[in-house]
Fold these 4 entries.
Entry 1:
Amino acid sequence: MHQRMFDVSWDAFSALPVAEKTPYLMQPDGAPFHTLFAQQFDVALLGRLAALSNAIRQIAKTRSGTLFLQDLICHKRAMIYFSQPSSRTFLSFLSACQILGVQTGEVRDMATSSEFKGESKEDSVRTFSSYFDMIIMRSPEKGLAERMAWALSNSDRPLPLINAGSGKDQHPTQALLDIYTLLRSFERNGGLRDRTVVFVGDLARGRTVRSLSLLLTQYPNIRQIFVAPQSLQIGEDIVQALEAKKVAFHLTDDFHASIPAADAIYMTRIQDEWDHDKGESAAVDISRFTFGADELKLLKPTGIIMHPLPRRSEIAVCVDSDPRAMYWRQMRNGMWIRAALIAETFGCGKRIHDYYSQNL
């Protein structure tokens, strides 16, 4: 049973840097108990999850393999608790649970929750812990997933929490699927090292960019280029994190000049749901930060185009048919890597690998 947070108060835990929080989040075998931050995953664990994802997707291609997977943890139940709108992340987690036979419940509309009656989020989460074995949580509130994980670990029934998006700061499982997509894209072409990744769009408010940027620091010689209007450029905290790790990076607003060097281009939409004033984002000229037929001509033959979705007009539809467009595969990869994360959290990764080695 995970009880590591019993020996630290919330004030003390929340004040720790992420590196010092990580031991409280992990199980003795190195698998995550709570998944809260992109930074809690090192290269070894990322490789372990990628290998498990590959095994699960191969096993699931046959009826017998599908039945094996669905019997693994069919006695477990997961609450998908989303107080922030989502379709892709919700369906990805739901599908991941179904692959492993995990039964699910959901709250996606706060008007149907007791929070509508004034119940605190802490009490809501404690209530869910009475009925479920895992909570998968998405919230617009910064740091809420972290606070709820601490509360669960200090309850009489500790259970794991997966952060499916928390405020503007973290989206660790999106970063996992992004890394998994990069690993699969370059596995026959030198691997994820000595690469240039170009992030484009709303970088100031895009939590997917923040999480992936931090994860990429784990890999050797990954240069990061951030392309955005000044008002939407990447935050100073990420800049400081990259400087501390001596990662090569560059901030610019010249998209076309950045494309020829790119091994991966990570496009993002304008995050106007975070506007302080209505129409604030509309005042920003984003016409120079879109990807279409002209930009395809500048991208190297081995380069790839990614997007966390949903998109608006930042990628033209004509790009979809190009073999370098990875965003639809990227979305599907999310289902497999989330299944692997759930399997590792519940301790059945070895059984999956054993089945794979014996039957495939």
Entry 2:
Amino acid sequence: MIRGSIVALITPFHQDGSVNYSKIEELIEWHIEEGTGGVLVLGTTGETPSLTEDEKDQIAMTAIRASDGRIPIIVGSGSNNTYEARNQSLKYQEMGADAVLVITPYYNKTNKRGMLEHFYAVANAISIPMILYNVPGRTGCTLTYEAVRELSRHENIVGIKEASGDITLVSKIAKLASDDFAIYSGNDDMIVPLMSLGGAGVISVLANILPRETSLMTKAFLEGDIERAKQLQLHYLDFIFALFSETNPIPIKEAMNLIGLDVGGYRLPLYAMEDSTRAMLADTMRQVGFAV
């Protein structure tokens, strides 16, 4: 089980719009140095819907090779096509991924049994750990407590990235937290609240630009320094809100570029920030100590 801060890594692009693979290697080295506990590639923050299959494969392989076993690499393999999710998961397993993240079947959605069978089809096909991903704001469907309870019994299903923002649902799912099933916050504004209910950490957008601080927040909580964890959560709260002032990952990539990390632009339909939100983001960054 990975505990602490797992970064939901952005996908960097060159000026011509192609994927900047060398920057991925550079960012992974930085995260290792800064104490990040794991790296997720090909998640929502990685603009995965706008990537080709070849690009996805190359990003996964680049991350796995750059890590070289020093930090766990989780690869997003989810799809609303169950067989594609299964096949992608098998492919990433063969590449050497440490785990896969599988999202609920968006757009076509499903009924209660179909939701379970979607995840079972993937989990039964692979031997590496699988993490569920619940983000109803993106998918239009949700994992209920009852579904998570049943899925958590599968030996390959080891956790959930919970990004519903529904603290009542989180509280119910928290009853399932154990050494065999981890709950990760999918919302940076709820890291400490979710960990207070037994969460193992966060799969984080914030960690793209504040890897050490996000790691310190989770480590402080896990080591019993609740006050320190709370202080860090509250200190960065306005900045976290600013990072979601427009569709993720638009603000986080803008913030990273503002401090010279040079991660490039976006793939349509994502587009550059509005001037007003960019100014607000820069102001919020200055308030937490960035020189922009």
Entry 3:
Amino acid sequence: MPELVLSSVDPKDGANLQRFIDVPKALYQDDPAWVAPLDMEQKELLTDHNHFFKHGKAAYWLARRGDQIVGRISAQIDELYEPIHKAKVGYFGLFECINDVEVAQALFTAAGQWLRERGCEAVHGPFNLSINASCGLLVEGLETPPYMMMGHARPYYPELLSACGFSKAKDLLAYRLDLALEFPPMATKLTKRFARNIKLGDIHDFPRKQAYSLMRDLFNDAWQGNWGFVPFTEEEFAAMGKNLNLIMDPRQAQFAYVDGEPVGMMVTLPDVNEALRGLNGRLLPFGWLKMLWRLKVRKVSRVRVPLMGVSSKLHGSNLAGGVAFMLLSNAWELAVEAGYSEAELSWILEDNKAIKDVIERVGGVVYKRYRIYEKSLLA
């Protein structure tokens, strides 16, 4: 058997970066549920076009046996993490590997050593590249395609991570909603009860730049104190906003108000992954035509709620639940009106009882589970 060799990947080396991006295309070629992310998006993620690199750093490796690439991994440090959590934690991400413990151990050793040399005492992951991007290893629900900005995995990955000394840190849940069902009567009663105190609006309520700034503030406020929280920076959210403008129904970028004050937000997006299936990550020469036809003519059938937050000053109150119910109810109505039949709300921390209760009351069912792993680097 050829010797296993690891090599670092310079993101400025276009050919080697493309090899890094292409690793999962070979690993998942027999998996009908996998959807290749766009190469152009992956290049933006991994290079200094990504605003993560204003407050973070990363390194990438490829594993080879002879002429065959057999795995990849990233290691990264988010400099916003330690001041908030008072811990020297680094991340791993973008892990893909053949079913071989030796390869996995070599990849995690390289990532761990890089983090250790930069003062990290523990590693969490996978994060691609931060907690505000795609994260978690899919451990349940591998039989169905992932929604946009959510990951997929090979079924043997949990065993590889366990063999490399990793253990569970936290689970992230994805809920499915069948929009063909009637909005639960009990939930309807609750939304009517709270309608006297809570008013809804959308992104048209403000100039676009101001609206995204407000969304960011609400999201960061709502999520502060949660496990692993790192805030969105202004640049990161502004860049996200530019991408949202391309696909979002502006009515589905909602705000909730109490006494005229914004106290909640929620964004619902069409599942672009439906339009990307079979393109193998490439828009050229004709992939972009297929994607546009699927999005604009055939239409997609699914939507995802990737962003939702309720002001921290309402947490623990009945009003917080009311805000969530109102936002979900309106999003449901708009999605059905637009012809969508299914929605995913993701991701939700496994111990976030308040939002889990709201989602389950409207009929949401956990159908995918993503796991964040951890390992000490002090040994």
Entry 4:
Amino acid sequence: MNGGMMKVAAHGAIGALAGLLLSTVSAQAADLGGNCCADLEERVAELEAITARKGNRRMSLTVSGQVNRSVMYYDDGFAKAPLSVDNSNTSSRVQFAGSARINPALSAGFLLQFDLNTCGRSHQANQVDDDGCGSPVTLNADGLGGAGDSLVGLTLANWYLTHNHWGTLTVGRLNTAASGSTTVDLGGIGVIANSQPIPGFGMLLRSGTGLLATYKGAAGAGTWGGLNCGAGQAGFGGVYQADCGFSALARRDGVSYSTPTWQGFSVSAAWGESNYWDAALRYAGEGGGFRFAAALAYRKFTDQEGDAQNAVPVPGGPQKDTDRRSIQGSASIMHVATGLFLNGAAMRYEFNGANIGETIGAVAGGPNRPDVNMWYLAGGITRNWFGIGNTAIYGEYGKYSDGITGLMAAASIDGLGATGTVLDSEHSWWGVGIVQNIDAAAMELYVGYRKYSADVVTSGVQIQGGIEDLSIIQAGARVQF
């Protein structure tokens, strides 16, 4: 009986509570003048008006990206100044990505990415053009308006199919298999330091007497990029800089395939326009208190002549395409308990034939320039000392050898007064820096110092006073969203 009375009491309490809630809602509706639903619908309409919409509900849409801006201060021995630049190590960008599941094993998706494609980037700015995109004729060109104007470029635009067991096929503008193969980094310093010689890539050479190399644009002869492997005759300088000066970049319009990861290993291959193909092997794993990651890639270019160069009338038709190959890779190891890490990278770039814009000297021993070699080491420690995110402290050293060896000095280092064939050339740098992660804001603060040195020996008149060293300090932040 007592149980029945308790049930009755409980039901009564529930009824009383329901009555109280209904009366409260009614009172609130009365306070709103009876228009609560209308107000809600109006608010929903306002939110829909300011919200990005997808074209359909089948394909997901994710918007992400980053802003990576910095101040770069240079001292070339005769001039010094600060520049406001986008960090070319990993530039500011916005990305749209989507995916949809076709069946339990097969999915489809897309990737669309935009970034700062021209002007105001740390590998383009130099002493006479603070935006790095001025006229190759006007010495004091100031970009697209003198106010740091930039052009947004389409970096990636592709679709893909991925299968749980068979891997991923990608078609469109894409990062090829070799992309990132020289920048493997477990220490978390890649935002400011890796095997690419930037910042400073676009700075002009200066002789020991203060003579500045003739300005030919951000990709022209006389830039640091020329020592990395690009410069040719005036007007055709720098045609190979994207191949080996930026060893970490490998972007093409084409097709790529990558396998699923098995025991830490994955394999990928790609074909791109202009008869380019590459393949890469990657590994990542952990054991014995260490983390390890590595990548090894092979690239082959058999058609990189510019359209304008092929359009030049020559006997027998367009100039024969050159055959260039590159083997490159990097590895990183970190001791988990202490945070000590070591990164290493290397590349060998081979020439098989000459570009139409190159004048090859006899020192090359035939129609080919000597191979260009690059190696790089960085090490340090990364720990969460302050509780806000990892702090990485590092030191680094890198070197390019024979970047312009075999070329005629009057063309390859135009403006510095050298003549004859380049018998030997090298470009090296060392640096130190710190990266502070702020996890709560998905942010990295960084400051890095680099000192660049270069040397060129020719068969004729040498550069008076040699080539002056260049010092650069770059400080900024990357914010991801």
